[in-house]
Amino acid sequence: MTKPRIALVIGIVCISIFPVLVRLSLTPGLISAFYRMAFASAVIVPYVIINKQIKVPSRKMVLLSGLCGVIFGLDVGVWNIAIQGSSATQATLLTNLSPVWVGIGAFLFLKDKPLKNFWYGTVIALIGMVLLVGYQFFRNLEFDIPFLFAVLSGMLYAVYMLVSKYVLGETEVVTFTTISLVASTVALGLINILAKEPFTGFSNLGWIVLVIQGLICQLLAWLLISYATKHMRATRVSVSLLGQAILASILAWIFLNETITLQMIIGGLVLLLGIRITFYTKPLGLFRLRKKEKS
Q1: Tell me, what DSSP letter sits at residue 114?
Q2: Number of H helices, E strands in the chain
Q3: Would you say 113 and 233 are in contact if contact means Cβ atoms under 8 Å apart?
Q4: Cβ neighbour number for residue 139 with a 10 Å cutoff
Q5: CA 36, CA 28: separation in Å to the nearest integer?
Q6: How far is 110 from 234, CA to CA, in rounded Å?
Q7: How confident is the model over 170-195, as pLDDT tens digits?
Q8: 258: phi > 0 → left, psi -120 to 50 → alpha, else beta; which?
């Protein structure tokens, strides 16, 4: 396993904690998103200044890095609102449609076009996701504001992946992460001021959760994921991130006493199979065999 793939796996483990923490609803969704970025910024900014790690790219890359931060901050904010305003399952599934948007965007705008195996793997992974959440999800589906926010979150995330892939082609990971985090913090801070959200008054557990979100779910996770994005196809990274749903379900079972059924296990295995297929660089043997039979 190459270093980017190892980084991606560890990053996925780190962000898998996030849905469980958000479900605790210890702070408002927008404020949770703000402090997630703020605590991460409070650590990385002094580090890059003291160690002179920041390498200022061109003005264009600085602006695009900042744009990525604003987009990602909005993504986290609307997803937090979606997950607190509906079921975590609904928000997670709808947000995880992002690989489809990433694939379409990559086909239209990136030089590295998605391979056929990406589409095969994405379809299989989404089927696994549906099995993971169960048919009850569709029976209880509500087309309300949280539903729209969850869909919007997936689209924002796809835009972030595509733009960050382009920026990371010319920018160091630490530099990109620092600029994007500061931009996220400023944007979310202004939004929370306009929304008149409370910045204080949380329980001790609430503050601990915010710190964990900032340092583990954001700083550590996205340094690793950005490193993987820099060296891998954006489409592969986006589909691989679906794996967080499996880990999040396991963590919810451990810490929130949520049930894991046989159907969920099967769904998780199908999802992992789909992710694995996207990593094949050659056409699948089944499809090559069919082509030979036709000829």
Answers
A1: P
A2: 15, 0
A3: no
A4: 7
A5: 12
A6: 10
A7: 889 899 999 999 999 999 999 999 98
A8: beta
